């Protein structure tokens, strides 16, 4: 997927492919790599799903629905950015699996500046709220875009602190859906002065399962993630885990051992997160030279990989056998994809093709981080 601007028809096909019910980011990227474009992938979908099993679970949206969605985006001023296009954020492109399409309402250029996430508790203390707003303002003055999830508490204060310098809010629902309602004024300000980003279509209302997707994009846009006041079982820690998996810097503000709102931060520090007490500490961590080489390293890796030429018709029997073996290795507990393939002993291209068919058929579920579980 080299960087080029898509035509109307190509963008429509990309959107139609990712809006298909059993096509997630892993399946999408596998289909594009195998077929070269979304149009040919869409043609192949029914046959691949039938090979995988429960084809009735897959629903490809009609062209008319996708064109209506595109028109609604145009009327609202929303840009649809596909991961192969030049304006797609480079750090987010390095996330595995890459989100195929994001919607952006506001200033796209904010995501091309150095970005840092500030996240934390919805029920934060007064001092935590003040600290978040203060460091957001100072990071903005240093040229950073501040990214957060537009939730109550720390998120909202981080956005408010960076409104004058540039801030991006990542949403679980569509970019036209205000959530929570108490942030309606902030939402309107960010629409005019910042940017709102989502993987979800317009009109979509987020459910609990959408927030891990949102959290993965928050960390994926950024060089580092700053955590302020997170409880031990906080959803904020999911974002920190994604940041570690994405090779981003994780920083945390320490707190009193008597305050349950800071136990998650203290635990992160115990596990190796950088302890930060002020903006200078954050800038010191973000000055890590490896971060500045990250984009170039990714581009070299992507450009240097050649997909082996495979005649898929010739290996259908191998894929059939692989599906049975791989399905037997899956369980209701999400398991890392590479571990399942390694345990199977099956060649990677054949195993990937078999898992793709199982996902399209709805036999397995693939999490946003690529982990696989049985669909029971």
C-alpha Rg (nearest Å)? 21 Å
Order of helices and strands: HHHHEHEEHEHEHEHEHEHEHHHHHEE
Q: What is the name of the CATH class of the domain at 105-294?
A: Alpha Beta
CATH names the topology of the domain at 105-294 as: Rossmann fold
> Architecture of the domain at 105-294, CATH level 2?
3-Layer(aba) Sandwich
* Class from helix and strand fractions: alpha/beta
Q: Give the strand content.
A: 5-15%
Parts with pLDDT < 50 across at least 5 consecutive residues:
300-305
Gross morphology: globular
Number of helices: 16
Description of the molecule:
There is one protein chain. With 376 residues, this protein is α/β, with parallel strands linked by helices. The chain contains 16 helices and 11 strands. About 2% of the residues have low confidence. The two termini are 34 Å apart. Among the domains are: 190 residues, Rossmann fold, CATH 3.40.50.450; 61 residues, Orthogonal Bundle (Arc Repressor Mutant, subunit A), CATH 1.10.10.10. The strands form 2 sheets. Strands 1-2-6-5-4-3-7-8-9 form a 9-stranded mixed β-sheet, sandwiched between helices. Strands 10-11 form a two-stranded antiparallel ribbon. It is globular and about 65 Å long. A hairpin with a 5-residue loop joins strand 10 and strand 11. Helices cover 47% and strands 12% of the residues.
């Amino acid at each position: 997927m080299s960087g080029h601007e898509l035509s109307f028809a190509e963008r429509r096909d990309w959107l139609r492919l990712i809006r298909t019910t059993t096509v997630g980011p892993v399946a999408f990227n596998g289909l594009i790599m195998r077929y070269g474009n979304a149009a040919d992938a869409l043609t192949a979908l029914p046959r691949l799903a039938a090979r995988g099993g429960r084809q009735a679970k897959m629903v490809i949206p009609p062209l008319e629905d996708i064109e209506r969605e595109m028109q609604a985006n145009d009327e609202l001023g929303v840009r649809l950015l596909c991961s192969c296009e030049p304006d797609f954020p480079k750090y987010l492109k390095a996330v595995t699996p890459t989100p195929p399409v994001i919607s952006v309402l506001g200033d796209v250029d904010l995501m091309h500046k150095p970005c840092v996430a500030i996240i934390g508790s919805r029920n934060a203390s007064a001092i935590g709220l003040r600290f978040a707003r203060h460091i957001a303002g100072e990071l903005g003055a240093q040229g950073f875009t501040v990214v957060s999830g537009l939730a109550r508490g720390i998120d909202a204060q981080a956005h408010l602190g960076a409104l004058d310098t540039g801030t991006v809010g990542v949403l679980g629902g569509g970019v036209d859906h205000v959530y929570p309602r108490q942030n309606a004024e902030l939402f309107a300000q960010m629409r005019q002065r910042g940017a709102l980003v989502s993987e979800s279509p317009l009109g979509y209302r987020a459910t609990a399962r959408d927030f891990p997707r949102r959290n993965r994009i928050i960390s994926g846009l950024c060089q580092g993630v700053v955590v302020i006041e997170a409880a031990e079982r906080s959803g904020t820690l999911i974002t920190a885990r994604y940041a570690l998996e994405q090779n981003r810097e994780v920083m945390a503000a320490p707190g009193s051992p008597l305050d349950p709102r800071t136990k998650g931060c203290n635990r992160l520090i115990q596990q190796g997160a950088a302890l930060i007490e002020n903006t200078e500490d954050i800038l010191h961590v973000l000055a890590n030279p490896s971060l500045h080489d990250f984009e170039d390293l990714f581009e070299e890796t992507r450009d240097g990989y050649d997909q082996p030429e495979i005649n898929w018709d010739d290996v259908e029997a191998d894929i059939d056998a692989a599906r049975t073996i791989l399905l037997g290795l899956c369980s209701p507990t999400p398991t890392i994809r590479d571990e399942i393939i390694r345990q199977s002993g099956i060649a990677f291209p054949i195993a990937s093709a078999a898992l793709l068919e199982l996902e399209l058929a709805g036999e397995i579920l693939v999490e946003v981080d690529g982990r696989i579980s049985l669909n029971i």
